[in-house]
Amino acid sequence: MSGPGAEAIDRAVAALRVGGLVAFPTETVYGLGADAANPVAVRRLYAVKGRPAGHPVIAHVAAAGQLADIAVDVPNLARDLAAACWPGPLTLVVRRRPGAVADEVTGGRGTVGVRVPDHPVAAALLAAFGGPVAAPSANRFGRVSPTTADHVRADLDGDVDEILDGGACRVGVESTIVDVTGPEPIVLRVGGVSEQRLREITGRVLVRRTDGEVAAPGTLASHYAPRAEVVLVAVDAVAGEVERLRAAGRSAVVLAGSGDPEIDAHDLYARLREADATGAEVIVAVLPDDADTLAAAVRDRLRRAAGG
Predict the structure, then answer these.
(1) I want to staple 190 with a disulfide (CB 3.0 to 4.6 A). Which of 110, 123, 286, 296 is the partner?
(2) Are 172 and 266 in contact (CB under 8 A)?
């Protein structure tokens, strides 16, 4: 489908400038955006999401050159990653420049996650706005992320000032988050840039630290959750698990992968929502192997949807 026109972009920019909230598409998922420099707007964003105040959100910008406006002491490795992956589904956690974004964006931390999304609607919005836009996924906190404008409307309609419809998201899972503030880069969230690709760019295997203290969005043990209970099984255990659930009087629906990590990532959230819409009490999901492809992101999201 064709994206929103210039008038819709102008309305969205105007809404951001007065502290409003704008839902917009990226290549990963739809974001719920607020002016990252406006603490009142960011607090409203947190309230609409139902997001804990200490859980940071990502600052989105139109171009890699804006990193210098937000960050200080950016290492060469970060610049290499940005040059290779931006625009794209990679977030870099950097030391934040004082006053560049509201404290609410970072949960009071001295670091901030920054990315340049790879979607023409997001690019147009961010370029027209000019500054950073704080944007978590455009859904209620902890629930399944939205990959279409209809998903946003189903979750947040009435609480958002503008919704820009740019069609279905191309990647379908959130960005990979890499912390570059320490002596060694650390993967805080697996996502749209595979660890294999990170290894190709950096020439090293990056440490993965995706659990524990909340240092990055989407890393709580329970997250991305549908209303139905999610049970994770190996592929050869599906039939037995469904039989066990039905014998216990519980309705179940099966969610199995295609074998193609990119397709499975693209379809994951839509299929979780579709499974939820059946009214089944339990979603029996086949857990993919923990590979260094997008399968790692699918596995991570399913594990958190099941409560860790």
Answers:
(1) 296
(2) yes
The whole-angstrom separation of Cα 303 and Cα 305 is 5
Largest alpha-carbon pair distance within the chain? Answer: 60
306, 290 contact by CB (below 8 A): no
Tell me the fold of 6-173: DHBP synthase (3.90.870)
User: What residue ranges do the domains of the chain occupy?
Assistant: 6-173, 229-305
Distance CA 285, CA 148 (A): 22
Residue pointed to by tokens 């147009």: 124
- Cβ atoms of 198 and 295 closer than 8 Å: no
Residue with tokens 């990979």: 176
User: Quick check: helix, strand or coil at residue 22?
Assistant: strand
- Read off the pTM: 0.94
SS3 253: strand
Indicate the SS3 state at residue 19.
Answer: coil
Per-residue model confidence as pLDDT tens digits over 140-179? 998 999 999 999 999 998 999 999 999 999 999 999 999 9
Peptide bond into 87 cis (omega under 30): yes
Exposed, middle or buried: residue 68 (CB in 10 Å: 0-12, 13-18, 19+)? Answer: exposed
